[in-house]
């Protein structure tokens, strides 16, 4: 049974390994993906990266509420994003792996994402505003970066 990993667990500070597309369709990876989705929702998350459940692989899930269509959860494997412009937006972020802690984070407003989907198909798409923010946050996890590393005005709540 998977559970959310929190600081000071070292996996959160480790760059994740690329996932070999040949094992993407393996039972282990498919079960991991299926198990991560309900964990994300029961924890009130909008995204979840594999390191947050103790797995050192470049896989993350973006909850459907963060996607433009709001229909399906989005699985991203080996995601890479690039900015589309210099424009950034500042907003408050939190993280399931840094409980009860929040801060203002500046993120690019518009990005383009290259990744594999859950079936191993190459995908490329633009993401804007909140959708772009969530993707940047989750990809940071895959690089061992937490929002608190970028945040200003960090505060905690009980």
Structural summary, described in words:
With 158 residues, the chain is α+β, with helices and mostly antiparallel strands. It has a single domain (10-156), classed as Peptide deformylase (Peptide Deformylase). The protein is built from 2 helices and 8 strands. The strands form 2 sheets. The chain has a 5-stranded antiparallel beta sheet with strand order 1-2-3-6-7. Strand 6 (110-116) and strand 7 (122-128) form a beta hairpin. The model has no long low-confidence stretch (mean pLDDT 97).
Can you summarize this structure?
The protein is α+β, with helices and mostly antiparallel strands and 158 residues long. It has one domain (10-156): Alpha-Beta Complex (Peptide Deformylase).
- Class from helix and strand fractions: alpha+beta
Fourth CATH level, the homologous superfamily: Peptide deformylase
Work out the number of β strands. Answer: 8
- The radius of gyration is 15 Å
Strand content: 25-35%
CATH fold-type name: Peptide Deformylase
Parts with pLDDT < 50 across at least 5 consecutive residues? none
How many structural domains does the protein architecture include?
1
The coarse overall form would be globular
Topology as a string of helices (H) and strands (E): HEEEEEEEHE
Sheet having the most strands: 5 strands, antiparallel
Distance, first to last CA: 27 Å
CATH architectural name: Alpha-Beta Complex
Which key terms come to mind for this protein?
three-stranded antiparallel β-sheet; Peptide Deformylase; 2 helices; globular; alpha+beta; five-stranded antiparallel β-sheet; 35% strand
